[in-house]
Amino acid sequence: MMAWLPVFFLYFNDHLEIKDVILLESIYYISVVILEVPSGMFSDYAGRKITLILSSLSFLVSYSIFGFISPDFNSLIVAQLFLAGGISFMSGTNTSFYFESLQEQGLESEYPQREARVQSLLQYTGAFAVLLGGFAGAIDLKITYIASFIFMVPAFILCLLFTEPKEEITIQHKSGESQFIKVLSYFKVPELRWIFVFSVGVYILAHIPYEFYQPYLNLLELEQFAMNTAIVSGILFAITRVFGAYAAGKSIKWTNKYGLKQVCAASVFIQLSIIVLLSLALHPGFIILLMLRSFSMSLTVAPLNAEIAPRVRKDHRASYFSLQSLASRLAFSICLVLLSLPVANEVINDWPTLSMIFRYAGIGGLIVILPLLYVNSGSLFQRKITNS
Fold first, then answer.
1. C-alpha torsion sign, points 318, 294, 108, 262
2. CA distances from 69 to 10, 23, 110 (A)
3. Cα 296 to Cα 163: distance, rounded to the nearest angstrom
4. Is there a contact between 2 and 129 (Cβ–Cβ < 8 Å)?
5. How does pLDDT run across 329-353, given as a tens digit for each residue?
6. Alpha carbons 150 and 116: distance in angstroms, whole number
7. Residue 164 CB: number of other CB atoms within 10 A?
8. Threshold 0.90, pTM exceeds
9. 267-324 pLDDT per residue, tens
10. Are 243 and 292 contacting, i.e. CB atoms less than 8 angstroms apart?
11. Rounded distance, CA 205 to CA 328, Å?
């Protein structure tokens, strides 16, 4: 329940120039990249519970700095580093822990639909949090981080109450290097290789509108319509999450009905359409497009996780998911650094620059992602997800 999501760019932009805001975001993504694989390996070595506890603690420290300390560039970097730690230690471990807990109870076959339900609930609770964040941000942007801190306290307590699956994690590797090499060996499997590349591409496409919709709202100058930008952002993000919750809940059903390839293609088409259309004009009517961002992203999370989890050994699973997250965030952080170059001398963002960012992202997606739907994917698209 991250109440700061609809206003983080506004919060940073209140204290930093636009070039420093983008740099701060790139630092976050690079930090996640650095921590991703080590955190996955730590999870496979030390266990899921302790890893999730460390994740919760990192979130609490980050939100404390954001919410209770006077912000400057250096303090915001530290807060971003702890935020990256929270994300990294959670990434892959939560999915692995859930799959293994179901496996121990003999419910492995129910994982796809249960994962879809988890993703749906995640979006609904997130919708409540960002709606609250939008209204709180209209009063003081810091309150959103204080609210997130409060939400995180019971999550931390919950992690303390978790129980590791009784079967011990089999550690057959002697070093981080051998573990990393074994994880890389999964790329020999065409299905996993395809999912990996697709997930990286979709992550980038989904995060372009996510990262830049707040400056888009700022440029609309909503105040002239008697609308507060933070409130509009919160409402918009909440509706987006509700749409995402619906898509996540239906994702396995739609995958079984229409096929995984069709669902993946629909996700890409929606995401590219949002980016391309946003690049065309600065208009209040276009903010409706942003409501579909989570919808398209949620279409593929549960189906792809259900394909990955059974194919990866337990003692490699968290490391594998972490490596996939690493690649996604590394690719996006590189994109952010490249996108910061044209605005290096700008104090504030303007429409030509923002439009250019959307255009470049759209062109890149068309060149890289669409052809992926036609390359070798093994037997990935030849059966229903329930037969995984």
1. negative
2. 17, 20, 45
3. 34
4. yes
5. 888 878 877 766 765 555 446 788 7
6. 27
7. 15
8. no
9. 999 999 999 999 998 888 888 888 888 888 899 999 999 999 889 888 888 888 888 8
10. yes
11. 10
Q: Which two tokens stand for residue 237?
A: 């993000």
Phi, psi dihedrals of residue 148, rounded to the nearest 5°: -60, -40
The rounded distance, in Å, linking the Cα atoms of 175 and 44 is: 12
Q: What is the 3-state secondary structure (H, E, C) of the chain?
A: CCCCCCCHHHHHHHHCCHHHHHHHHHHHHHHHHHHHHHHHHHHHHHCHHHHHHHHHHHHHHHHHHHHHCCCCHHHHHHHHHHHHHHHHHHCCHHHHHHHHHHHHCCCHHHHHHHHHHHHHHHHHHHHHHHHHHHHHHHHCCHHHHHHHHHHHHHHHHHHHHCCCCCCCCCCCCCCHHHHHHHHHHHHHCHHHHHHHHHHHHHHHHHHHHHHHHHHHHHHHCHHHHCCCHHHHHHHHHHHHHHHHHHHHHHHHHHHHHHCHHHHHHHHHHHHHHHHHHHHHCCCHHHHHHHHHHHHHHHHHHHHHHHHHHHHCCHHHHHHHHHHHHHHHHHHHHHHHHHHHHHHCCCCCCCHHHHHHHHHHHHHHHHHHHHHHCCCCCCCCCCCCHHHC
User: Rounded to the nearest 10 degrees, what angle do helices 293-308 and 111-139 cross at?
Assistant: 150
Q: Structure tokens of 368? A: 């890289």
d(CA 233, CA 249): 24
